[in-house]
Amino acid sequence: MAQQFNAQSFKTKTSVLLFGKNWAAPLVLYFDNPQQEYAKIQEIIKNATTSKLIELEAIGPVKKVSLLSGQIAGVALQDEQHFA
Question: Where are the domains of the chain?
Answer without folding.
Answer: 10-83
